[in-house]
Amino acid sequence: MTSIWLRDEPDRPRRAPQLTRARIVTEAVALLDTDGIEALTMRRLAQRLDVTSTALYWHVRTKDDVLDLAVDEIFGAVPLPAAGRDWTTDVRTLIHGWRAAMLAHPWTTALIGRPMLGPNVLTRTEFLQAALTRSGLTGERLAVTTHLLANFVIGSAVTEAAWPHDDDTPGAPTARQRITADPAAYPTLTDSGHLDSARWPTDTLFEKGLDTILTHVLGVPSEASPPPPTATPILDV
Hints:
It is a single chain. This protein is mainly α. The protein has 2 domains: 4-75, Homeodomain-like (Arc Repressor Mutant, subunit A); 87-217, Tetracycline Repressor, domain 2. 54% of the residues lie in helices and 0% in strands. α4 (63-75) packs parallel to α6 (119-134) and α5 (87-104) packs antiparallel against α6. This is TetR family transcriptional regulator.
């Protein structure tokens, strides 16, 4: 079935005038937030909207349509500030907003593989590339950097949404304990504090990861990074 974003939707009379696509999406997001993707069915959504399934299908063809619309609705909540003079601030604002939106609605992380062609997603991708373009990026470097930043924020959100923090369930076994139970087998992971959320909070890892991308890929100075070493001149002999 073709994505809703790639289909022409002809105008036609609505069987339930009180029902709109906006209402459908709002109710679908509420259902997804409460009960998750598996709980979303066209029949249950119609019941929540107090309409027949036939009336619902008059606005959306499939559950996939509803999911695509719901994901784009969530991305519409990502702040989109006016472009500023500092393009790095624009990039940071967008990437942090993107992560926050996904973590506020964890079900979105399971749908990122779907076509991301909705107007809210494309508008924010346009904002990101426009900011990167102001840094001087063009062509392949622009495409690669856009891909890198998108994969970084999506991967971070997927991991955080799927793996609860160690303190979410007091007394429960943690991932860190799996490592520290056998330090001889994992000496580097033990010493580095891998999966130790007390030592390496997810917010810190995300911020430092974004800082690393901007610093080492785009050459943006970082307050957290030491100054580069002075190059040793090559002497003629």
